[in-house]
Design a protein that fits this description.
The chain is an alpha/beta fold. It contains eleven helices and 14 strands. Helix 5 links the parallel strand 5 and strand 6. The protein is globular and about 55 Å long.
Length: 342
């Protein structure tokens, strides 16, 4: 059995893929998740603790039982538009739960931390591709909550010796190439899944928010990174932190951006259908173009995306959502069977 790593939010989209990558790398992922957005069926590679990070007794029991050597922190809310309408939820859930987790790490002398941060901490880009030195001026509560967490982690490092990798990633997409896990949000707001759901007949139309951005076709441009590539970056960052005991912040992306209209066109060509599209005004809190400069990740972690080409992103996501569509009963939440009481 490998070294235990506590993975908060490990039943979620990126967390579950990272658990698979951890197991493949020889670690034991211990999932701690309240299943508010995650799915128990996605916990396949290690123990499952059903708990909330604000439950101090449960969290301390998890540390005592499994003695994790490090923590990877995914748990939190991550919808830009929702954060604009309900900022209190984002500050309370994202920051409050992280404080509880950092306190537990301090109390149990765990000093290696990998944090799921975001490119939303940069705000409207002053230049692209965005480097790690770009000013962090977030324009929505989601991004501000993540930036505040990065700053809190710095304070815990100075006071308690907790070293962290803040991974500022761009747009996660795609699904496990073996179709064991994938994206399954309710409601689904991410672009590629919503297009695929439209193609599969689960939605009537695709809504494009904003056609007046300063981009090549007027729609927003994003840097899409395959979730499996993202998971492998977390393992690389974990190894680096555990070895060097120094903190770092790293962008995770491909350096290539695709517009909303380009993604729609690519999915239409893949499935051989013309889909209904409705145009709406841009939404508050969303920048027009976000692409990553990922050279630092290659230099420091030896990591670069392997399977984040657009055809692989679309094909892997298509296979997963087709599976969801055809086997909803098989993939429903099986919490009672999988729960692990610590």
């Amino acid at each position: 059995m490998g070294e235990p790593i506590l993975v908060t939010g490990g039943a979620g989209y990126i967390g579950s893929h990272t658990c698979k990558a951890l197991a493949k790398a020889g670690f034991l992922p211990v999932v701690y998740d309240n299943l508010s957005t995650g799915h128990a069926y996605a916990v396949k590679w290690g123990p499952f603790i059903h708990g909330d990070l604000n439950d101090k007794a449960k969290l301390n029991e998890a540390f005592t039982t499994y003695n994790p050597k490090a923590v990877i922190h995914f748990a939190g809310d991550a919808l830009v538009v929702e954060s604009m309408g309900d900022p209190a939820k984002y500050y309370r859930n994202n920051m409050g739960s992280t404080i509880a987790l950092l306190e537990a790490m301090r109390d149990h002398a765990v000093t290696s931390f990998v944090f799921s941060s975001t490119c939303a901490t940069y705000g409207n880009p002053q230049f692209t591709p965005i480097t790690e030195e770009h000013p962090q001026l977030p324009i929505n509560p989601y991004g501000r909550s993540k930036l505040m967490i990065e700053q809190m982690i710095g304070d815990f490092e100075r006071a308690h010796g907790i070293h962290a990798a803040a991974l500022r990633y761009f747009n996660a997409a795609g699904a496990d190439l073996e179709t064991q896990i994938g994206e399954n949000h309710t409601p689904e707001t991410h672009l590629i899944p919503t297009i695929i759901q439209t193609a599969l007949g689960h939605r009537n139309e695709i809504v494009v928010y904003g056609t007046d951005f300063e981009s090549r076709d007027g729609s927003a441009v994003r840097d899409y990174i395959h979730v499996q590539d993202l998971a492998e970056a977390h393992v690389a960052a974990l190894r680096w932190i555990m070895t060097h005991q120094k903190s770092l912040a790293v962008n995770l992306g491909t350096g290539t951006g695709y517009s909303v209209f380009e993604i729609i066109d690519a999915v239409q060509k893949f499935c051989g259908k013309i889909l209904q599209v409705r145009l709406e005004n841009r939404r508050a809190g969303e920048p027009g173009v976000l692409t990553a400069d990922n050279r630092f990740a290659l230099e420091l972690l030896g990591w670069s995306p392997r399977i984040s080409d657009l055809p692989t992103l679309i094909e892997s996501a298509w296979k997963w959502h087709q599976l969801l569509s055809e086997n909803a009963d098989l993939l429903k939440n099986t919490f009672q069977r999988l729960e692990h009481k610590c």
